[in-house]
Amino acid sequence: MNRTFHSRVGAGYWLLMAATAFLLFDFFWFHELLLTLLLAIVMIFEIEMLIHTQYVVTAEGNLQIETGRFVRKATIPLEKIMLIQHVKSWGIAPALSPVRLKISYQTEKGKASVLVSPKGEDDFIRCLMKRNQAIRVE
């Protein structure tokens, strides 16, 4: 059975959306067509990420990281996950909050990592560790 964890949304993301909405309205009001269209596209991406960012632990033993319809899903086999660390960072990631988990895992090319920000962080970690007891948590 699949288990879905939605992303925690930080105040910074809400502020970004508010600023984009304000500028969108401003450009629309002053008939700046090109800027209005550009910001409308940005706003669509922001809303899409807000609604559809989630982390799914599948019955097949994978962690699927979904960040909306316009961004490709990332799939990580649970047996490849080595380490989970609590981090605070800003930047572009499939995490909408600065309070994040850094998941380090093994790939064919070496090591890689991804940042996620699930609601119910403890349940998320417990769910991953239930499927792979070799995961270290720092």
User: How is the biggest beta sheet arranged?
Assistant: 4 strands, antiparallel
C-alpha Rg (nearest Å): 17 Å
Approximate strand percentage? 25-35%
Strand order of the largest sheet: 1-2-3-4
Distance between the termini: 27 Å
Provide the succession of SSEs: EHHEEEEEEHE
Uncertain parts: none
Q: Give the count of structural domains.
A: 1
Number of strands: 8
CATH class term: Mainly Beta
- CATH architectural label: Roll
Name the overall outline. Answer: elongated
CATH topology: PH-domain like
Structural class: alpha+beta
Count the DSSP helices: 3
Domain Uncharacterized protein YyaB-like PH: 53-132
Transmembrane segments: 12-31
Keywords: Membrane, Transmembrane, Transmembrane helix
InterPro entries: PH_YyaB-like
What can you tell me about this protein's structure?
With 138 residues, this protein is α+β, with helices and mostly antiparallel strands. The protein has a single domain, classed as PH-domain like, CATH 2.30.29. The protein is built from 3 helices and 8 strands; from the N terminus they run βααββββββαβ. The protein has helices at 11-29, 33-52, 121-131; strands spanning 3-6, 53-57, 62-67, 74-77, 81-88, 99-107, 110-116, 136-137. A hairpin with a 6-residue loop joins β3 and β4. α1 runs antiparallel to α2 (33-52). It is elongated, with a radius of gyration of 17 Å. The model has no long low-confidence stretch (mean pLDDT 94).
